[in-house]
Design a protein that fits this description.
By secondary structure, the chain is α+β, with helices and mostly antiparallel strands. The chain has helices at residues 2-22, 98-117, 122-133, 150-162, 191-221, and strands at residues 27-30, 36-38, 41-43, 46-50, 53-59, 71-78, 170-175, 184-187. The strands form two sheets. A six-stranded antiparallel beta barrel has the order 1-4-5-8-7-6. A two-stranded antiparallel ribbon has the order 2-3. A hairpin with an 8-residue loop joins strand 7 and strand 8. The longest helix is centred in the last third of the chain and has 31 residues, at 191-221. The radius of gyration is 22 Å and the shape is globular.
Length: 222
């Protein structure tokens, strides 16, 4: 029983630790680390903290330089179709359906990030990142051509999204008004996953309580 209680407490502590990341507010701090350099620019993930917890950030914003020690507040936009994308940098109010257009664009960028995460080839990672940056001022700096060009990779991303790929678990972190920083995409634990963890913890608690009652009843019979 004591061991079960310890496990329950440890799991509850883990749930509380993960919850701020899944339901983040908006405090970003950058420590200056990145994966490697390409063309004079750092390729993500960038290291730092989100609401005081260690996090990895993927930059979708070429237009704002940042350095180690920078911190800012950000607006959090869940990367789902029903979100309001007006705070984001790639929202374009002149379009017929700016929310839907922004949603699809950020989904494409999220797909490219998953491609970066799925390989150790730095050339591929850098090409994917430059394709991401091409939408926010980095097109003229892109060193890649052919199949690794921004145009080709963004087409691959759009095809994947149109084929049913979804950016589940991604959030956009956009510097709040009056704040200077970069716009990032981050991945967070899914609320559904946290819910399942919570259900599991409740089950563990009920099991432990049942064992305690059985042991107590047994002692009374003895």
């Amino acid at each position: 029983m004591r061991d079960s209680g310890k496990v329950l407490l440890a799991a509850l502590a883990m749930l509380l630790f993960l919850a701020p990341a899944a339901f983040a507010d908006s405090t970003i701090a950058i420590n200056g680390t990145y994966a490697f350099a390409n063309g004079g620019y750092g390729i993500p993930p960038y290291g730092g903290t989100l609401n005081g917890h260690a996090a990895e950030f993927y930059c979708v914003d070429f237009s704002h330089d940042i350095t180690a020690g920078d911190t800012w507040n950000a607006v959090v936009t869940n990367l789902v179709s029903g979100s309001n994308y007006s705070p984001t940098y790639l929202y374009n109010s002149t379009l017929t359906n700016p929310n839907l257009a922004a949603f699809h664009t950020y989904e494409d960028l999220a797909w490219l990030i998953t491609q970066m995460q799925g390989t150790t080839n730095q050339t591929t990672q850098a090409a994917d990142q430059w394709a991401i940056w091409s939408l926010s001022g980095g097109a003229s700096h892109d060193p890649f051509t052919g199949a690794n060009s921004a145009t080709a990779l963004l087409t691959d991303a759009a095809n994947a999204v149109n084929g049913g790929w979804t950016a589940q678990g991604f959030e956009i972190l956009t510097p709040d008004k009056g704040q200077y920083g970069q716009e990032f995409l981050v991945q967070t634990p899914e609320p559904s996953g946290l819910l399942l963890l919570g259900v599991g913890l409740c089950g563990l608690f009920l099991f432990s309580y049942r064992e305690k009652l059985i042991c107590s009843a047994s002692r009374q019979r003895d």
